[in-house]
Amino acid sequence: MSKLLSAEDGEMEEVALLESPVKPVCRYCGAFVVVRFGLTPNRKRQRYLCRNCYKTFTDNGAAPGMRYPSLVIASALNQFYEAASLHWVCRHLMLQYGMQPDHANIRRWISRYTRQAVIALSGARAQVGKIWAASETRIMTRASMSRAVWLWDIVDIETRFLLATGFSMKKSVLDFGVLLDLATRRTNTWPDVILTDELIPQIGATQGQLVAGREGMAASSFTVRVSTGQARRILGVLRDRSQILQRLGNRNTAHLAVSGWAVHYNFFRPHPRLGGKTPAEAAGVQSPLKNWADVVEM
Question: Mind telling me which InterPro entries this protein's record contains (predicted)?
Fold first, then answer.
């Protein structure tokens, strides 16, 4: 039994309590000189006062300045990128952690930590094979004002690494050329073969334009093969994103979600065809970020 100071309604008073085997640490300055300081407004959590920096906090695992623990935020991000609606994300957090952030909080988490992850992993270089698969998917989104948009993907067959992804308002060879240019710049290599399900066969005509003026890369040509079954099997896992994009209300958010889903797929989501590895691990990418919790705690 020991004596500590507690506070209720702003008044300090001395109380007796049992010695806890794990003492809370100030999450602002890291000091151990903390005392109990009443309860949170809903009277469900103990508040503490640090006698070193004189700041108050709750010992719930949240980072400084954050109301919710990192684990809760990471779980919300993971659920969102696994195509759960915001309603179901809130329900999951309530059932799993007893916490129920509102939709606005979750949207802020998605925006903030997706940007952090995309920036942190933008320089990753994958070691990929010479056979790629390309596809386009027609989807309807709130952001496109009831107009269909085209979602483009290029994936390496060997590692299942998503080399480039994006969407456009129309389906054309030029749109695919922009995406292929991005994929080749990220890998510093050209494919020998591009498999496609419904893509325009004339995409091979873009290779001359892409090679021209590219310093440090040898000119190359590739063959386009229409392989509907194989391309669809490889790219089928990517179609989960359509459920995410259909719920987004503006184009900037949709662009961010596409980039965030690429990070989730490449770096955090084990692929069933890779023996439990992520595409990034299969492609030899060394990354300090293994999951969304690592992003939140950066």
Answer: Integrase_cat-core (IPR001584)
Q: CA-CA distance, 290 to 296, in Å (whole number)?
A: 11
- Closest residue by Cα to residue 55 from 19, 21, 31: 31
Q: DSSP readout, 43-108?
A: S-SEEEEETTT--EEE-SSBPTT-SSBHHHHHHHHHHHHTT--HHHHHHHHHHHHS----HHHHHH
The torsion angle over the Cα atoms of residues 100, 254, 156 and 131, rounded to 10 degrees, is 160
286, containing H or E segment: none
Instruction: Indicate the residue type of 218.
Output: A
Query: What's at 80, amino acid-wise?
Result: F
**CB-based contact 262:160 (threshold 8 Å):** no
Q: Which residue is associated with the tokens 């480039």?
A: 164
Q: pLDDT of 197-249, one tens digit each?
A: 665 555 555 555 555 444 444 445 677 776 666 656 666 666 666 666 666 65
CA atoms within 13 A on the CB side of 58: 16
Could you write out the DSSP letters of every residue in 228-256?
HHHHHHHHGGGGGHHHHHTT--SHHHHHH
267 burial type by CB count under 10 A (0-12 exposed, 13-18 middle, 19+ buried):
buried
Nearest to 203 by CA among 189, 186, 217, 222: 222
Nearest CA among 159, 158, 160, 199 for reference residue 180: 199
Question: What letter represents residue 295's amino acid?
Answer: V
- Nearest Cα neighbor of 59 from 77, 92, 32 is 32
* Residue ranges of domains in the chain, CATH in brackets: 2-58 (no CATH), 131-249 (3.30.420.10)
Q: Interhelix angle for 70-81 vs 103-120, to 10°?
A: 80
Place of tokens 């030899």: 284
